[in-house]
Design goal:
D-amino Acid Aminotransferase, Chain A, domain 1; 15 strands; globular; binds N-(5'-phosphopyridoxyl)-D-alanine
Amino acid sequence: MATVYLNGEYTSADHAKVSVFDRGFLFGDGVYEVIPVYEGRCFELEGHLGRLQRSLEGVRITNPQTNAEWSAIIQTLIDQNGGGDQSVYLQVTRGVAPRDHLFPANTTPSVFVMSNPMQLIPDAFKLQGIKCITLPDIRWQRCDIKAITLLANSLLKQQAHEQGAQEALLIKDGHLTEGAASNAYIVKNDVIYTPPKSSELLPGITRDVVLSLAKRAGIELHQQLITEAELHDADEIWISSSTREVLPVTVLDDHPVASGQPGPVWQALIALYQQLKQEQNLG
Ligand code: PDD
């Protein structure tokens, strides 16, 4: 059984228990991060800890650990769970208190961290691309906070799955926001477009990586709203996340995206992404 970290202790996953009065359980009152690990080392840890801090500020929970403490906890877990390629999940909730919508006074946040073997991205997703469907974005108005309250995202992803798709691309007021668990991009005439950061979408750490790689490679990229019509008329569509890296979408709403094959701009970008992973592991 894997080792997990819960409120100051490293313990076996089957022994880790939290109170039924934890506000994470009763209200979904907490935030989280998912950090990819390659060959025993976190990828873009600083970015993830920075976003954790912003999410905590967004829900008014004091960060219970310094970044040095987070790094130490995370690295200890990775090592105890055998290194290699893993995915670290960490969450902070407001803590344990009698049920009341109002914030409790002086409650200690609950901290839980686990690491699991990284789920392999099927080769077919990279060779043939994935299928997506568009769905109305039914989520709340603070999607920039990485809140554990994921019922809407879960409903959307499940609906996509039941329709044979790997992701739902979300439409709000006629424009694309992001995926149910990913950021989204289109390519038109060799230019990459992605919606700008706002309260409508999560500021993805992989998105930051895509932006900096495109810049480094001299590929034009604009952060601007993408209409539903532009989405359907794109040369390429991609999604990105820490667990799925950057994947090409080749079927949207049962229609092929352009040629129906992963496009050349994605091919260039993903090669740079793999190169960056190598560089960071050697560094
Ligand atoms: N989710 N948007 C949403 C709604 C997400 O849930 C995620 C990632 C992203 C991409 O963010 P990043 O590149 O930092 O992983 C965008 C994670 C992987 C999850 O919930 O499991």
